[in-house]
Amino acid sequence: MRIVDMQGITKTFNQGTENELTVLHGVDLTIEDGEFVSIVGMSGSGKSTLMNIIGLLDRPSTGTYTLGDLDVLDANDEELAELRSQNIGFVFQNFNLVPRMSSLRNVEMPMMYAGVPAGTRTARAEDLLAKMGMGERMGHDPSELSGGQKQRVAIARAMANEPSLILADEPTGALDTATGRMVMDLFHELNAAGTTIVLITHNPELAAETDRVLTMRDGLFESEERP
């Protein structure tokens, strides 16, 4: 089953002004359910803009995009927000955890927005944190955690609503080698359990661990490899 189907995706900022800038120039991308795909490229290649469109954080200027069985371009903002909440998990380089909020509450937050009852979301958050090896740190806020611990909380939060797709933008970029290895092992475990993962990375060694490596250059895919 195809989970992402993009054809002819373009993205132009400041359209119609003297500062108009086209970042994506007609991208075609398909991702099958259960794949582990990496997107690599230099800064300015368009990969982060593409990730924002895949993750429904932004809309393309032109092209077609089907996520699962939904035509994204026909959906309104409310429908996109609901789809994003229920189907997509995000993991970022800078973790994006809420300060002064415990690990448990950080993981519960997406479920709260999705309307999951309090008891159910607490139990699921506890279970996810335990699986991430954070069972003894549930009550600690981000300032009391190491970088690796923060990223494990972030991955647990990304899995809170049982998404079919995880988008990870440089998830090991702020981590040392050993901790980065641990995070990649977690992604492999999630993928083995059926979660589709798209990894944005500058690291060719990490990219080589995925099913497909897509290289972007100047707003288009330059090459595709299967390591």
UniProtKB/TrEMBL annotation:
It comes from the Bacteria. Signal peptide: none annotated. Pfam families: ABC_tran. Keywords: ATP-binding, Nucleotide-binding, Transport. GO terms for molecular function: ATP binding. Residues 4-227 form the ABC transporter domain. SUPFAM superfamilies: P-loop containing nucleoside triphosphate hydrolases. This is ABC transporter ATP-binding protein. The lineage of its organism: Bacteria, Bacillati, Actinomycetota, Actinomycetes, Mycobacteriales.
